[in-house]
Structure formats: C-alpha cells, structure tokens
Amino acid sequence: MGTCIAAIQCAITAILLVSTTVSSDDKSPIPADPSSLNKWFQDNVRPLANRKGTIDPALKAAEAKPRTIKVRKDGSGEFKTLKDAINSIPTGNKERVIVHIGPGEYIEKLKIERGKPFVTFLGSPSNMPTLSFDGTARKYGTVYSATLEAEADYFVAANIIIKNSAPRPKGQLKGEQAVALRISGDKSAFYNCRFIGFQDTLCDDKGRHLFKDCYIEGTVDYIFGSGKSLYLGTELHVIGDEKGNFITAHARNNEAENTGFSFVHCKVDGTGTKRAYLGRAWQQRPRVVFSYTTMSSVVNPEGWSNNFHPERDHTALFGEYKCKGEGANPAARAKASKQLTPGQVAPFISLGFIEGSKWLLHPPN
Q: What are the boundaries of the signal sequence (predicted)?
C-alpha cells in the first residue's frame, strides 16, 4: 500500500512539473471572439520561467542576462543617437540588449546586422519615439531603402513608430518606392508599433515574425516579401489612390517554400472606395489568409488580383475565413479567392504558423 501511495505521489508531482514548465501552445486555435484575443495570447505565451526545456537554448541564455542602454535626444542617456547605440553592441552578441528609446524623432538610417541578435527597441506607449528617414529605391534599391533594416534574429520592437518620410510616389519617376522597415531576421516580434509610408512600407522579407496590435499604412504593396508572419489585431490602413491599391504582395514561387502571411482579427480601413485589393499574385504561388477580419468599403469587391496572370488563379492561395464588413462580401470575389473551411484555415490561426512556442515572449515593460 505504501509503495502504491508513493507511486501516486510521484505521478502527481510529475504532472505538476509538466504543468509549470509548459511552453507556448502552438496548437490552441485563436478564438473567434476578438475580445478573447489578449487572454488567449496570455494563456498561450507563457513567462520564460515557466518554459524550461521548451524555448530555444540560445534565447533562454540571452534572456538570463538582459541589459538596458538608454538613448535620449537631450543627452540624458548613454547615447544621443540610435546608430551609436547599435554600434556599441558587439558582433556575436549573446545577451538581450534592450535599447530604451526616449521620445522624439530620430532621423537616422539604421541597420541591425545579422551578427547582432537579441536586440530590443523599446519606447513608451504614451510617448512613442519615431525613427524616420527618407530613403528611396532610386538611391538605395528597394529593400535597402528602409529606415530600419533588422537582419538579426530574435529582434523585438515595442511602442515604436517607424517611418519612411520620402514623398508620396507620383508614378513619374522610377525608384519612388520607400520602405520603412525591412525585417529579414528570424523569430522577431513587433508589439504596438506603427509603420508609416506609401509604396512598399513594410518589407516582410524572410523569417518567422509576429506583429501584434500594430498599425501599417500605405498605397501599393505596402506589406511585401517572403516572410512567414502572423499579424494579430493589426490595422491595415489604405491611403486611397485613384490608380488602385494593393495591400499585400507575397513573394512565393513553389510549394516547397514554407512561407505566408496570416492576418487574424485585423482591420482593413482607409480612404477611397472599392479600390484596394487584399493582395496580388506578385509571384506564382503567394499564400495570404485573412481570418476574423473586419473589412471596410475600401476593399475592391473582387478582393484579390492575379496580377494579369490568369494561370495564377490556380496556384495562388488567397484565403478568407469568417471575415465581416462591407468589404468582406464574397459574392464578387476573384477566381483566385477561397472561402476556407475550418480544416483549411486551422494551420493559419494558431501560434504554430510561426512555431511561436520556441521563441515568442512578451515584450518588456
């Protein structure tokens, strides 16, 4: 009897240990009710202390010794410019470095090189700093025109405005595209950030990313690239253009490429009426899905464009699931569009889409 009781106690202890070291849950579906989104996120992205043995070892080690450096325009921090702060981080960095950015506009062209992982840009939610530059494709090339190029893995930004201040393209000159952010590092997250620009605002270049509670505005292809990203509770604001608007341009050419954009509980709004396409088939096999998203009248009734390539009607995955609003009416949708079933949408509405259990953390306060 004593042996049996001891065995039961061991089993209970094992269960409790498992329950306190649970990772982020990659399988739990995002709830349909938008009011439940933040609780779902809290429940499924657990604190680091509760995720022993489940999170990337390099990330766990980096988070064990975080350090903070302050950037202040008035000189009250360690640095007055972001460029100097970035330069102070050694190549091969192995510790979380939180760059705490004071209010104001920082007119700088910035790059976090691949050898500098574990960097966080942190601003105040009540007085968000603005990173601004006027780079254009004509001068730098499209993807290199970005105000901020984040090439390193495990980059995090919270409460930051990233802006390309170049003038609105008039269509009269080549190279008027102007990127605000290019994110090409893997396992990167953005919380409560705003991305400001016109054409090609956000280059979601490559890697797995999370955008939560963000705002992204633009005219044409203002979310583009080959990334695999989950956008949660994010506003996609269309700046109306008489020639038409395209929100996404996902670059994917074959089925072997495990990439895509998934928008869940987002909002599509802006100026203009029925001119904005949710996406265009820039490459042969784009993969873009909108779920539980509210779409205003800015959305063109067709929803999607094959980019004048009719054959891409059969190769693109342009999916929608339980979206609402005037712009979500499926009646006149393009051939490439699909109203997904629960089974079809399942891979796109969980943290598993970006394998968040291995790396996703809440932003620092």
A: 1-24
